[in-house]
Write the structure tokens for this entry.
Amino acid sequence: MSKLKTRFTQLVALKKDIVQKSEQALFQANQSLQNAQNELQNSYDILNTMHEPTNGSVSQLLANRTLLSSQRGAIQHNKEWIKFAQQQVNQAKEQLQKDMIEYEKFKYLELEEIKKILKAQKQQEAKDLDEVALMTYKG
């Protein structure tokens, strides 16, 4: 049996596309969060490999201090990136949830409409069979 079309069929297809786009957005947001977490870990790893020199020229000490400061800045930047990425993930989850509710709502309405159509078809078939039986009986 081919799928019955109702006034909700196109809307259900549209809502399904929206859900798929929301799923993709959530996937991308999770990827961004993972990238941010990896970058933060890399920043910490780099910081841990840096050692303050105990001797050397003042310019070497100042250069090393600048590198340490720069690395701490990178760590702070990556922490902020993680915070932003987590907010994006949360927003994407909320949007996906809303979109799925809308999709399920219209899918339900479409199913109810199909049930009505099938019921009407069965009633018409029964009526037609009754008419055929009456015509056969009289004949």
